[in-house]
From TrEMBL:
InterPro entries reported in the protein's UniProt record: QSregVF_b
UniProt protein name: Cytoplasmic protein
Protein species of origin: Sphingobacterium haloxyli
Pfam family, any one: QSregVF_b
Amino acid sequence: MFNPEILIELANTKMPFGKHQGWLLCNLPEPYLNWFHRNGFPKGKLGMQLATLYEIKLNGLEYLLKPLLKK
C-alpha cells in the first residue's frame, strides 16, 4: 500500500550535504540526481528519497510534488 506521507516528506526535506546542501530535494537538478544514479545513492532513508526523486523526475512527474510544498 502506498503511503502519501512519503511524497510530502520528499517535497519538504532539505539536502543535508554536498554541492546543493540546504536545497529542497524536489528542487535538486536532474544532473545531480543522474550522478547519484550512476555512482550510487547514499544508504538509508536519504538514498531511498533520492532514488524515488530520480524516478519521479525521469518520468516527468515533478508536478506531483509542487502542491505538497509547505509554505
